[in-house]
Amino acid sequence: MDPLALPDLPTLLLLCAAAAAAGWVDAVSGGGGLLQLPALFIALPTAPPVEVLATNKVSSILGTAAAAATYTRKAPPDIRTALPMVVAAVAGAALGAATASRIPADVFRPVIVVLLVAVWFWTLLSPQMGRTQALRWHGRRRHYVVATVAGLAIGFYDGLIGPGTGSFLLIVLVGVLGYSFLNASSTAKVVNLGTNLAAVIVFGVTGSVLWVLGLLMGLCNVAGAVVGARMAIRRGSGFVRIVFLAVVGVLILRLGWDLLG
């Protein structure tokens, strides 16, 4: 498609609505791609998949940047943890993308679905988890090694399969490293921003982005992200936990459907 082309007005309005909703979800708990990416595939049935993925990333990175800036004012991210996760996640995403051409993603999906179900029940049955911050090994080498390994694994997943990467970041930051849900969301946004930037650079160099559509959707994504981040800050970790459970539940259904289909 022409990088400057736009769909008809009704389709554009629906895509902008999906982008706003995705920005809200992504800012609170991650997983906005579960809304925005399918909407793009449905709205642009004749576009090459790489253009759909690239345009999704352009919209997402604007919303992620806005959410990160909003969180920074009230719930500052842990940059010392986020930076090694970013570097490792970018490397992992490159490895995952390379692996995808050799090993089908379906090989990994059953394991991921089982893990997500376990995490969902673990979070549901642990109502105090993530409500307050109780960092594990913070300031010690082990903390940053775990963050780096997790970043590598999540990046690999993102490059190989993709949906719900932000939710996986929350799982690690809350369940393993001991962040509250609110502070985990803030830190996850920095990691997401780094990985999205790497993807946008690659897609931009290869000429795969539908720039006008991506930027218009990005403005709506920003609006949703700012509202979502402010709501998460105002309502706290308990609210983020509820949205997280809902998003992971949808992710389980989505991956399970892909597996069965």
Provide structural commentary.
The chain is 77% helix and 0% strand. The protein has 261 residues and is mostly helical. The protein has one domain. Helix 5 runs antiparallel to helix 10, helix 7 packs antiparallel against helix 8 and helix 8 packs across helix 10. The mean pLDDT is 88.
What are its keywords?
261 residues; mainly alpha; 10 helices
How many structural domains? 1
Estimated radius of gyration: 17 Å
- The share of residues in helices is over 70%
**How many E-type strands?**
0
Give the SSE map:
Layout: H1 9-29, H2 33-43, H3 49-74, H4 79-100, H5 109-124, H6 141-160, H7 165-176, H8 181-205, H9 211-235, H10 237-260
Helix pairs in contact: 1-2, 1-3, 1-9, 2-3, 3-8, 3-9, 4-6, 4-8, 5-10, 6-7, 7-8, 8-10
Short précis:
This protein is mainly α and 261 residues long. It has ten helices and no strands.
